[in-house]
Design a protein that fits this description.
Pfam families: Epimerase
Protein name: NAD-dependent epimerase/dehydratase family protein
Organism: Chryseobacterium gilvum
CATH architecture: 3-Layer(aba) Sandwich
Number of strands: 13
CATH superfamily: NAD(P)-binding Rossmann-like Domain
Domain NAD-dependent epimerase/dehydratase: 21-242
Structural class: alpha/beta
CATH topology: Rossmann fold
CATH class: Alpha Beta
Mean pLDDT: 92
Largest sheet: 7 strands, parallel
Number of helices: 12
Strand content: 15-25%
C-alpha cells in the first residue's frame, strides 16, 4: 500500500513539473500526430474527445482524455493549463451552408479562446489553413503577408477559418495567440482516412487522371513538429505557414507511383470537364443535395496553389522532410491497417 501511494505521489509531482497542453481534434490526422509529438517532447496532454471508447489513444501518465464537445464548459479542465492547441474543425467539403462551417470553425473557436483567457492560459495556438493566405506561383510563392485569393475567398471552409483568425488576432488579451497555417498534409496515422484519400486516387490504378493544377504538400509529422516548436518559439499575433513541396498533381502522383513501384498511364483531365462538374455541383447544391462538387472546388484543382515555408524555417527552426517520406509513411500505414 505504501509503495502504491509512493508511486502515485511521484506521478503527481512529475505531472506538476510537466507543461500542460489542452488539445482538441486528436482523432484526426494532425491531432493524432500532434499528441505523439507532445508526449515525446515531455508535455502532459489533456485531450478533448467526444467518447473515450472510440479514441485511438489510451490514457496514461502523460495523457488524460476529457469527454465533451467544443461548446462544453471546459473551465475545470483548463485549470493550470499552460497552452491550448485548437485543431478540431469542420473540414467536410459537401456541406451546403456557410453556417455549417461557421458554427464549428469560428464560434467554437471563440468559445474555447474565451474559456482559455479566463483560465489564464499562456498561449492559444489556432490551427487554421494555408488557404486563408494568398497562394502564389513557382516564381513568386505565397506567404504569410498575402491576402486570401479566389477561389478560397468563396470556400465556406476557408472563409470560416479566416473569420476565426481575424477574431483571434484582434484580441488584446494576456493569452498569446499564434496562428499556424498548414498546407495539404500527408503521412502516418491517417485512420479515417482524410487527406490520405489522394493516395488512393493513384495507388493500384492502371490509369490515373489528374487535373492541371498543383498545391503544396507537407508531411503531417513536420506540421506536428511545427506546432510543438511554436509553443516555445512562436511569436504573439503571428501566422506561420507549415508547408513544404510545391508540386503539380502530375508530379505528386508520379512520386506516389515511384514509392509504390507502379507505372499507370497518366491522363490529364481537360479543364472543361472539371468546369462542367463544378457547374453540376452548383446545381445539385442549389437543389439542397450534398456533394463535394462545386465551381469553387473544381477551380482549386486548376490553379497552382503554392506557398513558401521560409518563415517557419527561420523563426520556428523546422527541418522539413522530403514528401516521398510522407507518401511512404501513408502507404505503409494503409497497408498495415
Amino acid at each position: 500500500m505504501d509503495q502504491i501511494t509512493s508511486n502515485d505521489e511521484c506521478h503527481k509531482k512529475r505531472n506538476r513539473r510537466m507543461k500542460k497542453v489542452f488539445v482538441t481534434g486528436i482523432t484526426g490526422l494532425l491531432g493524432n500526430n500532434t499528441v505523439i509529438k507532445l508526449v515525446e517532447n515531455g508535455y502532459f496532454v489533456i485531450a478533448l474527445v467526444r467518447k473515450k471508447g472510440v479514441c485511438f489513444f489510451k490514457e496514461n501518465e502523460s495523457l488524460t482524455l476529457v469527454e465533451g464537445d467544443l461548446f462544453s464548459d471546459l473551465s475545470k479542465h483548463l485549470k493550470d493549463v499552460d497552452y491550448v492547441i485548437h485543431i478540431a474543425a469542420e473540414t467536410r467539403q459537401n456541406l451546403l451552408l456557410y453556417r455549417d462551417y461557421q458554427r464549428i470553425n469560428c464560434e467554437a473557436t471563440i468559445h474555447l479562446f474565451c474559456e482559455s483567457v479566463k483560465a489564464n492560459v499562456q498561449k492559444f495556438l489556432f490551427i487554421s489553413s494555408a488557404n486563408t493566405l494568398g497562394f502564389g506561383s513557382f516564381e513568386e510563392l505565397g506567404n504569410e503577408k498575402n491576402d486570401q485569393k479566389y477561389p478560397f475567398t468563396h470556400s465556406f471552409y476557408a472563409k470560416s477559418k479566416s473569420e476565426a483568425e481575424n477574431f483571434l488576432l484582434h484580441q488584446k488579451k494576456n493569452t498569446k495567440v499564434i496562428i499556424l497555417n498548414p498546407a495539404f498534409m500527408i503521412g502516418n496515422h491517417d485512420y479515417k482516412p482524410s487527406s490520405g484519400k489522394i493516395i488512393f486516387w493513384v495507388w493500384k490504378k492502371n490509369m490515373v487522371f489528374y487535373p492541371k493544377g498543383g498545391k503544396n504538400f507537407v508531411n503531417v509529422e513536420d506540421v506536428a513538429t511545427g506546432i510543438v516548436c511554436a509553443l516555445k518559439k512562436g511569436k504573439k499575433g503571428e501566422k506561420y505557414l507549415l508547408a513544404n513541396e510545391n508540386l503539380t498533381y502530375r508530379d505528386f502522383f508520379t512520386k506516389v507511383n515511384t514509392v509504390t513501384d507502379q507505372q499507370p498511364i497518366m491522363i490529364p483531365i481537360p479543364d472543361f470537364i472539371l468546369q462542367f462538374l463544378g457547374f453540376l455541383g452548383d446545381f445539385l447544391r442549389f437543389c439542397r443535395i450534398k456533394t463535394n462538387l462545386s465551381s469553387v472546388n473544381m477551380k482549386a484543382l486548376l490553379i497552382n496553389n503554392y506557398y513558401s515555408n521560409q518563415k517557419s524555417i527561420d523563426e520556428l527552426g523546422i527541418q522539413y522532410q522530403p514528401i516521398e517520406k510522407a507518401i511512404e509513411d501513408a502507404v505503409n500505414f494503409f497497408k498495415n491497417r
